[in-house]
Amino acid sequence: MTRLPDPSQKTADESEEERVSRLLTGLSAMAILFLVGIGAKAWFVAHTTHAGALWFFAALVAINMLVFARNGNRQQQKVGMIAIVGLLFGYLIITGGESNTGPLWFYVFPPLLFYLTDLKTGTAVLLFCYLLAAVVFQFPELPLVTAEYTTDFKIRFFATLTFESIFCFVLEASRLKARNELMNLAQAHEHAARTDDLTGLSNRRDMQHRLGEEYSRYQRSGHHFSIALIDLDLFKRINDEYGHDAGDEVLRRFSELMQAVIRQTDIAARWGGEEFLILLPDTSLLQALTLAERLRSEVANTEFIFAGQRLPVTISAGICSIAKAGSVDELLKQADIHLYNAKEDGRDRIAPRVRTTTKGQASPRTSA
Ligand SMILES: Nc1nc2c(ncn2[C@@H]2O[C@H](COP(=O)(O)OP(=O)(O)OP(=O)(O)O)[C@@H](O)[C@H]2O)c(=O)[nH]1
């Protein structure tokens, strides 16, 4: 049986990416305001180099926003923002910012980093920043390093930052765990809502949805499709004579057999009780009849054994092609009429009967 790719995971991942992107856009706008504002303050107290540096970073953030607005590449937006913020914090630690308070901005980094990247990348980038801060703190005489911090500040800075980083890591790890558990739960529910418990096939609801989709495809592109409505013959008798468990086992075995016979692109569903429906995309009526006949013959020649007893299992089926019906409802109705005819004609057969056969080619065994 072919299943549609589960869309829920993809949709959830996409909406998370979208959320992250929106947040980044908001943060970028805020960062520009802050950088321009603090830069202006520095300018007025004659810290022109510092002001220039902050405005330069504001311009980088703005460019990152513009690039994203142009190409919509979320990954690029993320990497760009992390790089700019990383550089800015590097600058603030090296120069001390205003009155050596620059490193305080570093506390913004861990939550942002863990939110934007995965835990591994976040930890790696943070460790690199720690290393940079340690080098700056340890070697204030290095070129470009203009700030000097007290030992007390350095110890407290590292201690509080480590605490914050661990806290952010744990929070993000639990958020991801909860998110994954929710996703798995949603997927399990989604799967259960589309699947028949006993056979594992699509259920009627899922098949109705797929029929609708296939019909739209047919309307759009003219691709024909057919259906086979299959019913196990005298199934009540199997239940009555061999027990309900035997009946269940027959339904399961038949489902397996049907899946082995149909193509990858065909979709089999339990339509209800002992009725099954196969959706056959890109299949003419004649091809559908041939497949149904192969399945009928396979079932008739298969030994269904339960508790050491051989069960009498045969099927009847009604086939219809969309070429013979104007709607899905009409298609199902026609298939049902053919199934009824097959039963009336003695069961263990397929309807409608095919009259035209090529010379020398066997026609499907069908009802009148
Ligand atoms: N074991 C089992 N039986 C089921 C299940 N669903 C439906 N049935 C039984 O399937 C039987 C269907 O019987 P009928 O509708 O009378 O049809 P039939 O005996 O197959 O006769 P024809 O369709 O005329 O060949 C009923 O006895 C239902 O109880 C199921 O999940 N498990």
Automatic annotation (TrEMBL):
<feature type="domain" description="GGDEF">
    <location>
        <begin position="223"/>
        <end position="355"/>
    </location>
</feature>
<dbReference type="InterPro" id="IPR043128">
    <property type="entry name" value="Rev_trsase/Diguanyl_cyclase"/>
</dbReference>
<keyword id="KW-0808">Transferase</keyword>
<keyword id="KW-0548">Nucleotidyltransferase</keyword>
<dbReference type="InterPro" id="IPR029787">
    <property type="entry name" value="Nucleotide_cyclase"/>
</dbReference>
<keyword id="KW-1133">Transmembrane helix</keyword>
<feature type="transmembrane region" description="Helical">
    <location>
        <begin position="20"/>
        <end position="44"/>
    </location>
</feature>
<feature type="transmembrane region" description="Helical">
    <location>
        <begin position="79"/>
        <end position="96"/>
    </location>
</feature>
<feature type="transmembrane region" description="Helical">
    <location>
        <begin position="50"/>
        <end position="67"/>
    </location>
</feature>
<dbReference type="InterPro" id="IPR050469">
    <property type="entry name" value="Diguanylate_Cyclase"/>
</dbReference>
<feature type="transmembrane region" description="Helical">
    <location>
        <begin position="124"/>
        <end position="140"/>
    </location>
</feature>
<protein>
    <recommendedName>
        <fullName>diguanylate cyclase</fullName>
        <ecNumber>2.7.7.65</ecNumber>
    </recommendedName>
</protein>
<feature type="region of interest" description="Disordered">
    <location>
        <begin position="348"/>
        <end position="368"/>
    </location>
</feature>
<keyword id="KW-0812">Transmembrane</keyword>
<keyword id="KW-0472">Membrane</keyword>
<dbReference type="GO" id="GO:0052621">
    <property type="term" value="F:diguanylate cyclase activity"/>
</dbReference>
<dbReference type="InterPro" id="IPR000160">
    <property type="entry name" value="GGDEF_dom"/>
</dbReference>
<feature type="compositionally biased region" description="Polar residues">
    <location>
        <begin position="355"/>
        <end position="368"/>
    </location>
</feature>
<feature type="transmembrane region" description="Helical">
    <location>
        <begin position="155"/>
        <end position="173"/>
    </location>
</feature>
<dbReference type="Pfam" id="PF00990">
    <property type="entry name" value="GGDEF"/>
</dbReference>
